[in-house]
Amino acid sequence: MNRIDRLTGMILLLQGQRVITAEQIAGHFEISVRTVYRDLAALGEAGVPIIAEAGIGYSLMRGYHMPPVMFTEDEAAALFMSGVVTEQIADDSLSQSLKSALLKVRSVLPQEKRDYLHQLKDKVSVSFRQSHDVGKRESLMPIQDAVVRRRCLRIGYNTASQGDITERLVEPLGLVFYARRWHLIAWCRLRKEVRDFRLDRMASWKVMDECFQEHSGFLLKEFLRKSIENHELTPATVIVERGALERFHGEIPCTRISEEIQQDGRVRLELLTYSCEWLGGWLLGFGTRVEAVEPPELRDGIRDAALAVAARHAEEFSVV
């Protein structure tokens, strides 16, 4: 990055933060703190109103904004590509806001860059399997707003183990997308602890007027890390035909420890899984191209499920 681009980026970084330290700026641009001081001095000499507070950091004078920034072709393409990916996991409300934002980006581009993005749109697509409950796809933005504004949520939650719907009053702390689903991390007043709620299991929800105090000691990334560590993982061994290996690697729902090519050309993989039942259901989709070796409950579960499927399809089909 040349210095002009870095100075412009530094103004944008300051504009997007209430206050930021020289060390944080240095880390963002991967430069030394001494270089940050020189750049900030240059911006000040150029008339950019930068406020320096000892022991706190740097900020821009309130009310100062850069004029609209022109995107380069690469920057515009990067925004478009991120939008294509995000649209796959976003709900309807977020998708509409995303489309509106990208439309504004395109509107400030010169014609040749708009033509470039138009061609890119026709030649780029992202698709992956994802479970959606269409009836609840509009819920993400209001829940996201409740997280930011610290507004309580009253939810009707369908538990996986019992299938019962229980009413919970929760304090939303964060939204996370993992395992191809959106999850609300929230303090549950019923259980008196932070819990993980899948959005597709919310039968109902309502944003309440009541606000809650910030959970000052809560860190979302730390909670997720500990949640993963506290789950008991089961070692599993499977053998995959070479022709199915690319799909296996692309969709694998658990941790891969090692893999070894056997004499017959197939690949032996050592895995760690949270659930043999869940892993077995996924492996069934590969048919005879995957063989479960161990543990016995994984192999037995796949066999029993396959026999049940075969028995069901051996029956004569009739329409009632």
Automatic annotation (TrEMBL):
Swiss-Prot/TrEMBL keywords: Transcription, Transcription regulation
Q: Which GO terms describe its molecular function?
A: DNA-binding transcription factor activity
Domain called HTH deoR-type: residue spans: 3-58
Q: Which Gene3D superfamilies does the record associate with it?
A: Winged helix-like DNA-binding domain superfamily/Winged helix DNA-binding domain
Source organism per entry reads: Luteolibacter yonseiensis
What's the protein called, per UniProt? YafY family transcriptional regulator
Signal sequence, start to end: none
Q: Which InterPro entries match?
A: CBASS_pafABC_assoc_protein, DeoR_HTH, HTH_11, PafC-like, WCX_dom, WH-like_DNA-bd_sf, WH_DNA-bd_sf, WYL_dom
Pfam families per the UniProt record, alphabetical: HTH_11, WCX, WYL
For this protein, the record's PROSITE patterns field holds: HTH_DEOR_2, WYL
Instruction: List the taxonomic lineage.
Output: Bacteria, Pseudomonadati, Verrucomicrobiota, Verrucomicrobiia, Verrucomicrobiales
